[in-house]
Amino acid sequence: MDTAIEVYNATEMRSPETQPIKRRKKKSKVWEHFTIEAVEPNSRRAFCKGCNQSFAYSNGPKVAGTSHLKRHIAKGTCPALPHQTQDNDNNPPMTPYTPKSDTPRRRYRTQNTSPFVPFNQDKCRQEIAKMIIMHEYPLHMVEHPGFVSFVRSLQPHFDAVSFNNVQGDCVATYLSEKQSVMKTLEEIPGRFCLTLDFWTSKLTLGYVFITGHFIDSDWKIQKKLLNVLMEPYPESDEALSLAVANCVSEWSLDGKLFSVAFNHLASSTAVENIRPLLCIKNPGILDGQLVIGNCVARTFSSLAKDVLEKGKDVIKKIRDSVKHVKTSESHEERFVELKEQLQVPSDKVLSLDDQTQWNTTYKMLVAASELKEVFSCLDTADPDYKKPPSAEDWRQVEALCSFLKPLFEAASTLLSTENPSAVTFFHEVWKTQSDLSRAIAGEDPYVLGIAKTMKEKVDKYWRDCSLVLAMAVVMDPRFKMKLVEFSFSKIFGEDSGKNIKTVDDGIHELFSEYMALPSPLNPTSEGGKVDGLLDFDTYIMETTGQNLKSELDQYLDETLLPRVQEFDVLDWWKQNKLKYPTLSKMARDILSIPVSAAAFDYVFDMEPREMDEYKTSLRPETVEALICAKEWLLESVASSSSAAAQTANAIIKTEA
C-alpha cells in the first residue's frame, strides 16, 4: 500500500544501538515529480521538479507524509504540469492523479516544533550588506568561490550576488539609515558644531570626516558622523570651505551652524573662506570668530613631536638599549636577575615604542628612566651589552619626560572622557602654558631650547582658541568670569586686562544676538510654561525692576557654586532653563563646542590617518556609504543593548 511507506516499521523504530535505521524504497508515484533535499541539519524538504516549490517532508524523526505532495499534482496547482484545455482537441484530457489508499494513516505527534520560515532572498541580501558594512569585509567577497560554496551549503536556492549587487545593497542600507539620522537631527533644539578630520591616502587624495556635535532635548551631548568626502586637492584654500558647505547643504544646517574645528594645516585664506558660512547664513555667531583652526589633540601631538625631535639622539640610545633586552630571551633573563640583585623598586615593564604613536615613546622613556640603575650595570652581567647611556643621557631623558608628562595627561583626558568639554581643556592648556613659562625662566640650555619651541605653538593656540575656551568657562557656574580673570592675569601679565575685556565683550555680544533671535513658535519646546499668565510675568518684571539687568548679568553676579568633583554643568542648565530662558540656549550651544576633531582612539597619532588602498579603489560615494553606515549601525546596536540592560535592571529592582 502507498500509505504504508509513510510510517516507520517496527525495525525503523528500534534504537540506533540495536539496529541502524533503514527506510524502504519509495514506491509512490509522487516521487516521479519530487526530489528531497536537506535544507538544514535534521530537516529535509521536498522540491517539485516542475515549479521548484518546496514542501515540508521531515523534521528530525517526524515525516510529514506525501498527501500534500499528491494534492499539488492531482489538483493541478503546479503551473509546470500540462492540464486539460478546451481549445486543444488533439490533446486528450489528462486524468488527475488520484491517491489510492484504504489503510488508515498512522499519525505522529511532536512537540515544540519551530514554525517554518520561508526563504527570503531580499532579506538575505540585506543581511549580507549589513555584515560587510559592520565588519569592513571587502565587497568582492560575495564573488569568492569559498563564500559562494558556504552560502549554498546553507541555502541551495540562494541566488549568488555580484560585486555590483552588493555595492548597491550597501548604498541602499546607508540611505535607509541616513533617513533615521536626519529625523533625529530635525528634532534637535539647538545649533550644531562641526569637526573636520582629514585623512590622507597613497594616491594623494584627501578624505574629510565631518562629525556633527550637539546637545539633545534631554541636555545630553551627542555626536553623529555626517559625511566622508573625497577631496582631490586637500591642500587647496577651498578644500575646507567646500567640505563644510556641502555638509550644511546636504543636512539642512543653514542657520544652525555654530562652530567649526579642524585638524588640517590650513592657510589663513582657507580659514577665512569658512567664516562666511558661520556669520552670513547664521546670525549671532560673532562674525565667524568660532572657527577653531587648531584641534587640541593635533596641537598636543605637534608639541610632543617637537619634544621627540629635540631628543631624537638620546631617544635612539634608549631604544637600542631596550631593544637589546626585549629581543633576546637570555638578555631579558639577565636583566631581570640584575634588577632583583640591585633591588630596584620600579614595577615598570620595558617595551619598544611604536614610532607612529608618541605616547608609546613616552612610556618607553619613563620605564627606562626608572630602570636606569639596571642599565648602568648591565654590561657587567651581560657581555653582549656594550654601550649603556651616560649620566648626561639619563638627565636629558628626565627632561624630555618632564615635557611629555603634562601633554600625555592632557591628551589622555580625551580617552577617559566620552565627550571632553572645553572647560576641561581650558585648565589643561593654561597649565601647559604656565609650565612652559617657568621652564623658559630657568637656566638649563637643553630645557630652554625645547620650551621655546613649544611655547610658540601654545601661544598660537591661545590666540586662536582662548575666546571659545573662555566662553565655555563662563558658562560653568563654578567659575564664570572669575577664573578667566585669574588665569589671564597669570598668562598675559600686563596685557591681561585687554584679553579679559575681549572675552567679556564677546559673551555680551553673543547674548545680545540671542536676545534678538525670534522666539520659537511652540513655547513648550524649551519647557516653557503655557499657563495664560505671560502678561503677569511682564508685569512682575516691570514693577520689580528685573528688566534693568539682563539674564547674563544676573547670572554673572550670582555667587559661584562650590567646586564639587562630579558636577554636571549640562544638568545644571537643564534645571535652570526656566530661570534663564535665553541664556540657557546660548549655554547649550557654547558647551557643545568640541575641542578635538580627532577620533578618541587616535589622539596620540604623530601623522594624519591614511585611508587604506582598498577603499581608495572604490567610488567616493561607496566609501562614504560604507563608513557612515557602519558608524550608525554600531550606534544603533549599542543603543539597543543599553536599552535592554536598563529594562532588565528595572525589572530586577521591581522584583526586589
Task: Give an account of the 3D structure.
This protein is of the alpha+beta class and 656 residues long. The protein is 51% helix and 9% strand. It contains 22 helices and nine strands. The protein has helices at 67-74, 121-135, 145-154, 163-186, 239-250, 268-279, 296-310, 312-326, 329-342, 358-370, 372-381, 391-416, 422-440, 445-474, 480-492, 496-516, 534-544, 551-557, 569-575, 581-591, 613-616, 620-655, and strands at 34-40, 43-48, 54-59, 62-63, 192-199, 206-215, 221-231, 257-262, 291-292. A five-stranded mixed β-sheet has the order 7-6-5-8-9, with helices on both faces. A hairpin with a 5-residue loop joins strand 6 (206-215) and strand 7. The protein is globular and about 105 Å long. Mean pLDDT is 81; it is low at 1-22, 84-100 and 520-530. It comes from Cardamine amara subsp. amara. Residues 25-85 form the BED-type domain. InterPro entries: hAT-like_transposase_RNase-H, HATC_C_dom, RNaseH-like_sf, Znf_BED, ZnF_BED_domain_contain, Znf_C2H2_sf. Residues 79-114 are annotated as: Disordered. Homodimer.
